[in-house]
Amino acid sequence: MKHWKTYLVLVLLAIAMLLPLLWLVATALKAPTEDVFGGLGQLLPRQPNLGNFIKVWQDYPFGRYLLNSVVVSSITVALNLFFCALAAYPLARLNFVGRDVTLAAIVATLMIPFQLIMIPLYILAVNLGLRNSYVGIIFPSLASAFGIFLLRQAFQGVPKELEEAARIDGCRELGIWWHIMIPAIRPALVTLAIFVFIGSWSDFLWPLIVLDQPEYYTLPLGVAQLSSALDFDWRLIAAASVIAIAPIIVLFLFVQRYIIPSEASSGVKG
């Protein structure tokens, strides 16, 4: 119990971080007659019900928004993992002229804010005919400098003995990448997948720019549209927000067991 002060501070910080989420869920469950801004004494609903969720789901096309978000986020994660892993492998394991310069240039792009490149991206999307389409939402996120750097570091941590053993068995570079290296960096892939999914799921600015047809709206755009349509009925807005964030929480609870230290080194003894 000598660290009880540390634990107390951590518990208080956790409560402070969870209070907004608790308020959101409690507001979504409140009846129309209950006060939303009544302070901590009236934080929990007296008669919890799912009426707000039912009204939002039935009166507004949230099913379509949810489907759009699932499609966009899933494809974005799959393509991002593929292209980042494909780019990171040679930067980590192969020797070629300009490798370090290429890596430095990729990492340097992390300092460029999205707001600086969104106009050129929009012009490119318009010229390619990608407005109001899933491809238009996805194509700026096909790969990321953060993902390439993260996976490059993970590839460097894989023992060279595994790679050499695969070459002795006659495996080519692409086979080594797919059968040896990819399974060895699974924790890094899962970590990157979580970051990419959360970023894609909650992205508001780029879909707002590239979309103007509601049938392609993702959940963040749907919640924003709902906010203006309901004239700030906080119960319904809170219900819509819970619907929007629930998949992220479920995803994290499902994949957190895969975020473990890599055991690739266990295949090499001595």
What does it look like?
This protein has helices spanning 4-28, 51-59, 62-93, 99-108, 114-127, 134-138, 145-156, 160-168, 173-184, 186-201, 205-210, 219-229, 234-255. Helices cover 68% and strands 0% of the residues. The model is unreliable at 262-270 (pLDDT under 50). It is globular, with a radius of gyration of 23 Å. It is mainly alpha-helical and 270 residues long. It contains 13 helices and no strands.
Give the termini separation.
Answer: 40 Å
The quaternary structure here is single chain
- Sheet bearing the most strands, described? none
- Summed up, the helix count is 13
Q: What is the radius of gyration?
A: 23 Å
| Spans where pLDDT lies below 50 across 5 or more residues | 262-270
Fill in the keyword field for this structure.
single chain, 270 residues, mainly alpha, 68% helix, globular, disordered C terminus
Summarize the structure.
By secondary structure, the protein is mainly α. The chain is 68% helix and 0% strand. The chain is built from 13 helices and no strands.
Describe how the helices and strands are arranged.
Blueprint: H1 4-28, H2 51-59, H3 62-93, H4 99-108, H5 114-127, H6 134-138, H7 145-156, H8 160-168, H9 173-184, H10 186-201, H11 205-210, H12 219-229, H13 234-255
